[in-house]
Amino acid sequence: MKLVILGATGPSGQCLVMQALEAGHEVTAIVRNQAKITTKHEKLKVVEADIFSESSLQPHFEGEDAVLSCLGIHAGWLQPITFYSQSIQPIITAMKGSKVNRFLTMTTWCTKSEGPFIVKWIAKPLFLKYYCLDMGRMEDYLEQESADIKYTVVKPPNLTGNTISGAEIKAVEGQWVPGGRASNITRGDVAKFMLECLDTDQWDNKLVSISN
């Protein structure tokens, strides 16, 4: 397949790019700074674009089969953010304009619910409050405004290393995986699951939480 990957310079995005190339996909990595990607591959194209601009994105979406996003932001724990909710609209609008119908992105557990103890009492109030609020707004946009495309929101818990662990990946539609531990899935496993979603319609137009 011909894939566009957003957020390709971050840890999760790098895992996704490498696994996609290893699987034989053609990858267009959209970045802010081309110098941050040192990987060279005959099936990898690296381009610069503004994720907040439909007109900047759309030319790079033309002729592609799917857009996968590992976009993220580093912000202070007490600082409100709008990164996710403000970037999703131009991305989806550019997809529709270029007739790309498959979109995968990642958020996190419990953007709209309390969840297990460690999330309810530690992670969300201390570290993830504003991330969860804005990721939730992005999820709302997809559910309410994007029913005409096939989207999947992959929701991992806390991310650890970059390798594929080999452990079972549990997947449940909804905000979290009951019984799942909140800190034991690798970025490699998340990338693996995202690519597997391309080969099934099981998770089309759904929010799916994953865990080991």
Explain what the structure shows.
The protein has helices spanning 11-22, 54-61, 83-97, 117-145, 187-197; strands at 2-6, 26-31, 44-48, 66-69, 102-106, 150-155, 170-173, 206-211. The protein has an 8-stranded mixed beta sheet with strand order 3-2-1-4-5-6-8-7, sandwiched between helices. The protein is 35% helix and 19% strand. The protein is globular, with a radius of gyration of 16 Å. Helix 1 links the parallel strand 1 (2-6) and strand 2 (26-31). Helix 2 (54-61) crosses helix 3 (83-97).
User: What kind of sheet is the major sheet?
Assistant: 8 strands, mixed
Q: Provide the structure class.
A: alpha/beta
End-to-end distance = 27 Å
The shape is globular
Record field, number of beta strands: 8
Tell me briefly what this model is:
The protein has 212 residues and is an alpha/beta fold. The protein has helices at 11-22, 54-61, 83-97, 117-145, 187-197, and strands spanning 2-6, 26-31, 44-48, 66-69, 102-106, 150-155, 170-173, 206-211.
Summarize the SSE layout with pairings.
Elements: E1 2-6, H1 11-22, E2 26-31, E3 44-48, H2 54-61, E4 66-69, H3 83-97, E5 102-106, H4 117-145, E6 150-155, E7 170-173, H5 187-197, E8 206-211
Parallel strand pairs: 1-2, 1-4, 2-3, 4-5, 5-6, 6-8
Antiparallel strand pairs: 7-8
